[in-house]
Hints:
Elements: E1 19-28, E2 31-41, E3 46-50, H1 57-64, E4 72-77, E5 80-81, H2 86-92, E6 93-96, H3 108-118, H4 126-136, H5 152-163, E7 170-174, H6 182-197, E8 201-206, H7 209-212, E9 217-222, E10 225-230, H8 232-239, H9 248-277
Parallel strand pairs: 3-8, 3-9, 6-7, 7-8
Antiparallel strand pairs: 1-2, 1-4, 4-5, 9-10
Amino acid sequence: MRNRQPGAAGSGENGTPIVSVRDLEKRFGDFVAVDRVSFSIDRGEIFGFLGPNGAGKSTTIRMLCGIITPSAGSGLVAGYDVVRQSESIKQTIGYMSQKFSLYEDLTPVENIRFYLGIYSVPERDWPERTEWALGMARLGGMRDRLTRELAPGWRQRLALACALLHRPEILFLDEPTSGVDPGTRRHFWEFIRELAGQGVTVFVTTHYMDEALNCDRIVMINEGRIVAIGSPGEIIRGACPGEEGATLNEAFIRLMKKERVQGTGSRNQGEEGGNKKA
């Protein structure tokens, strides 16, 4: 984990968070996918969302990227409102989904040029940005091969390069290393730390404990609700007080068990209250 400068958690330049979320909620009919989450993110911070599949990680990130509209609550991303200014958000951020989103029947160069157009990068900058992206992805020698012929790790790097073509302030990564080998994951995170060192804010969802240790702060989320928030070390110490050598995985298991017990208690109280009222 990187050493961060001391300061207010979630504050950016002049104390203003680059991402600020308050009581954000998303419902699909009667199902609550995200249940009134609140947090803020520093500029240049690596901020992680850690939780099992179906916990609400991807739904949260899609709301912040302006892809889906919240049902309730508020949020600002780089100063833009997630409800009223979603199109402005899309031009400000980089987004890499958990599913490979490039065109496999195009070459890396053709994919890069397609996204340069999508992000409205001036054409005079295309040659420089194309070479930068190929260099960043280490694909110079494979620039004219079809993307579907590339190994998964190379395609992942290409997708990341395309998400950075317009030099966004914030990079949203939705389980970006799903399905790749440990070596590729390690190199990927080395590059993420480099980006954060250059001032890019990184919001990443993951269910890998070792990846979460790379984050400055993480949110543990389950069934749409925040279970814990803080640095990995803070969360471990809070869940496993006085236990030297405790791991993030152990802290996660304890917090999830505690959340289930509290959730059951809340439901039982609600049922008892309903019976009494009836």
